[in-house]
Amino acid sequence: MEDSKQVASPGSPSDSSPIGDPELALLRERVAELDRLASIGQLTAGILHEIKNPLNFITNYARLSFDLIDEIESITVKFEDHPEYPELIDVLGMLKSNVTRIRENGERAERVILGMLAQTHSGSSNFELTELNTMLEEFTKLAYQGVRSGDKDFVVSLVFQLDPTVGKVLLAPYEFNRVILNLVLNACYAVNERRKKQIDGYKPTITVASQRSDDHIDVKIRDNGDGIPDEVKQKLFTPFFTTKPVGKGTGLGLSLSLQIVNELHKGSLSVESEPGNFTEFTINLPLN
């Protein structure tokens, strides 16, 4: 008895080859890129853990050293009549200032590392009262330094217009800082691409602003890159959509940012752009 076999006609779906499909080929490239980024993420998490331990040691001993300087100052009061007492007080003052800077910058580095480590973990989002302006400044600079590490010719003017009345805001910090990183990295890419065109008088600039109102806070991230055409702007928040070449972006940053702002924080993320002039993303965070 012969096996029955179906022979597909040339026009049947079973004959269609996915290899020749440009959209599927592009999707495969994106998946390969995501797999590469996942591997890098695992390596980065290991490195961050290794850095965190000695950094904790530095900040803890900086705090202890500060307390010891206070004790020394209390002891030196007994030697006020000594001719070198004023010089000793000056030295102790400089030492205390140096230890304070070590502690402050160590704590800042700890915050950044904890924030980056949180990106490697999935799970429930914890909302905390967070110094929003501090987060905006730290993660904007972190994104810029990340771009500059791969292109030493890239220099951008970072302008901060931060409302001092913003204060602490209830948000999921480890998710929200991911939004800031995504938006600033996109802004860096935009101004860097325009810089490469060598336009006379062009100065790459990224402006980060915060403004508190009665019932919400606005965060604006603006760049003076080439802007975004209307037909591209309509697709910006679509997963896997990107205008960057393969290896430069996955097309997931803005769709993820939209989800974090709109769904997790019950706010809104919008974009305005004028081709040839600017692009500005606005995050609206409700205060209730």
TrEMBL record:
Domain annotation Histidine kinase: ranges: 46-288
Annotated CDD domains: HisKA
Compositional bias (Low complexity): 9-21
Catalytic activity: ATP + protein L-histidine = ADP + protein N-phospho-L-histidine
Enzyme nomenclature, EC number: 2.7.13.3
PROSITE patterns recorded: HIS_KIN
Broad enzyme group: transferase
GO MF: phosphorelay sensor kinase activity
Record-linked SUPFAM superfamilies: ATPase domain of HSP90 chaperone/DNA topoisomerase II/histidine kinase, Homodimeric domain of signal transducing histidine kinase
UniProtKB keywords: Phosphoprotein
Classification via SMART domains: HATPase_c
Residue ranges of the region described as Disordered: 1-21
Pfam families: HATPase_c
Name of the featured protein: histidine kinase
Organism of origin: Spirosoma aureum
